[in-house]
Design goal:
The complex is a heterodimer of chains A (212) and B (68).
Chain A: H1 2-37, E1 47-53, E2 62-63, E3 69-70, E4 78-83, H2 86-90, H3 95-125, H4 132-166, E5 173-175, H5 182-209
Antiparallel strand pairs in A: 1-4, 1-5, 2-3
Chain B: E1 3-5, H1 7-14, H2 18-25, H3 29-36, H4 45-55, H5 59-62, E2 63-65
Antiparallel strand pairs in B: 1-2
Classes of the chains: A mainly alpha (212), B mainly alpha (68).
GO molecular function (chain B): DNA binding
Pfam family, one (chain B): HTH_26
Domain HTH cro/C1-type (chain B): 7-62
Chain lengths: 212, 68
């Protein structure tokens, strides 16, 4: 009994940390966006991110301390970030709002399931785990996780598309990149399955309570 | 629900109030009210036995299958 309450306390702490940490990060991001839009030079380093492959590794070399020459292989695609000065970005005013939209969207997609998770933990703490509201919460949680998976995909697509069209690489190629986050996808589906378990549990609890 | 609880009629026949029945059967007034209003999902044999004993009747006198 004591171990269970400890694990619940740990989960609540993690969820609370993610929630407040996420809110503070969101607030910080909004402040940075406002500063950037009002022309203040913030410490944020702007870069173009892309997915690179077909590296010309002839310029690279590696050898062991006793002189054995090794062959270098890169696990492609490699994430590359190209940094440009302020003038570059001043000429591309449309790209910063895209970055802001994607990042705020990502934060929102991160915070929404955390909020539902916190509410779920609160009801479990009150001893009302198997309730119809919790089944709904889990369904919403699962939906947000799946939205996150596809948002991630969209971000990759946009980011790699911008890099592909805006940069002329030498010694490697930039290409569009799409990869589905399988782990997160399975997690989302598992939460959906769990919501069905909770729905059934809520029904059984109601029947139990209405058995005279 | 096709199963109807006819607790009212038996109580009237015995001239017993809901409070009195709840005390004799050992159920809370709230639970007996759930049973009487037909909101109950199931009835335990022990509950049915106690009600039948107090109201001096058969289970079929309390529970009826109503097709309508």
């Amino acid at each position: 009994m004591k171990a269970r309450s400890r694990s619940l306390a740990a989960l609540k702490f993690i969820a609370g940390f993610c929630w407040w940490g996420g809110l503070v990060s969101c607030g910080g991001l909004v402040v940075l966006v406002v500063l950037e839009f009002s022309g203040v030079d913030t410490f944020v380093e702007r870069s173009v991110q892309g997915y690179a492959s077909s590296f010309d590794t002839s310029a690279f070399s590696v050898e062991s301390k006793d002189g054995f020459v090794g062959e270098l292989e890169l696990e492609e695609p490699v994430i590359v970030r190209v940094k440009f000065g302020r003038e570059y970005w001043d000429e591309r005013p449309a790209e910063f709002p895209i970055f802001v939209f994607l990042t705020l969207g990502f934060m929102g997609i991160f915070l929404a399931p955390v909020w539902h998770f916190r509410k779920l933990l609160e009801s479990v703490e009150r001893g009302e785990a198997f309730a119809a509201a919790n089944a709904k919460r889990l369904r919403t949680l699962g939906s947000w996780i799946l939205v996150g998976v596809f948002w991630d995909l969209l971000m990759e697509l946009i980011v790699s598309g911008i890099a592909d069209s805006a940069l002329r690489p030498q010694g490697f190629t930039l290409n569009g990149h799409l990869s589905l986050n399988g782990g997160l996808l399975v997690a989302g589906l598992c939460v959906f399955a769990l919501s069905e378990v909770f729905r059934l549990g809520a029904k059984m609890r109601e029947e139990q309570e209405l058995t005279i | 629900m096709p199963i109807r609880v006819r607790l009212d009629e038996r109580m009237k026949a015995k001239g017993m109030s809901l409070t009195e029945l709840s005390e004799k059967v050992g159920l809370t007034l709230a639970n007996l009210s759930i049973l009487k209003t037909g909101k109950a999902k199931a009835v335990r044999f022990s509950t049915l036995e106690a009600i039948c004993e107090v109201l001096e009747c058969q289970p079929g006198d309390i529970l009826v299958f109503d097709e309508k």
